[in-house]
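User: Predict the structure for this protein chain, please.
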Amino acid sequence: MRLFQHYHNRKYHNVVRREFWDFELSVWLHMVGRSLISIFIPVLIIKSGFPLWAVLFYYILMNLFDVPLNFVARRFILSYGARLAIILATLAGIIYFINFGWLSGGGYAVIIVLAFLDAVYDAFYWVGHLYLFFESSQEPEQAGQNTGTLESVRSLAGMLGPGIGAIILLFGNQGPLLAASSIFFALSILPLLRLRHIKDKPRPTGVTVRQFFSTLREKRDYLSLGFSNLHWPVENILWPLFIFSLYGTLRSIAWVAIIVSIGKIIFSYVAGTVTKKSGDTLIVVGSTAIVLIWVARLLYPHDIFYYASILLTGFFAIMIDIPIESNIVERARLKDSLLASTVRNATTMIPQFLIFSLLAILVQVFKVSFLVAIGSLIMLIVINRLFLVWMKRENHGTV
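Assistant: Here is the predicted structure, written as structure tokens:
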């Protein structure tokens, strides 16, 4: 696999090359299984008889559990390796799907269990997965290309999942959907069992979180990631829920999923062409465009535009996400790859915990969340514009 070339050596070149294709296959199967159901989780909670507040409660708990579990996952990887962490996360995901089937009869106790299992899955899978990716990105100047390639691999799986999940729900119920996700997760473990030569157990570097954030570059990158993840749950969780609240049918969400699949097909090529050179400007342009889309959604409500805007936002979100991730990848190995993967995943959870906690005490959930999304993107523009000005004042342009 091209993303992991630095693991290749003369003695094990052919073996390791084959094993990384196995790892890529595992990632692809895993992403298909997750994307089958991820967009439908909030709606399925409501369809099980719970109010909107229960969805907010679920995500509050999930993110609350997730943040400390990222550091537990880090300790686990130091002791047992990233491969075992990914396998453990996948098993937690399968148990999560099994328990989801009991949601309608289990009350809030099942929601608490689901939130915990989802947090275990997210922390262990993404800390392990991102660590391997960070370690594989040997050349800093290739960070944009490598991140774009990884996004293309994820998009390839994401193309299929939402559309297939929509078809299953339109012609069946959540049972087959949960079963299909569980099967893909189980299959994703098999390629991992074949891996024998991947160096997935890092050596402690002694870098602390305070030392990690000692430079302005890291502060900018992770602050940008945090603000982008204030927008992410609004666009990917609350906006589909808003559409569901308008039309009240699974068909309305199925169309959202189909549009997401089409968008990923179209934008997968864009993902591989974003470069570091244009990254900072793309963040500003993409954020500005999405702000305008949100303003249009609020001022000019129209059924067709509600759906068309999902496609537009997907395109401009790529312009934000890949440059931010590329900046993080470029610096990860200079600091501590495992700590970078831990902090990176925790940074995505903290803003989501804050926004769902805020919305849980408000009445106008959707309108406030939309305004928060606009505000977070404006802050993203400000941060990156200030950083661009600072870069121009520095002769070497680095921290």
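DSSP finds 14 helices and no strands in the chain.
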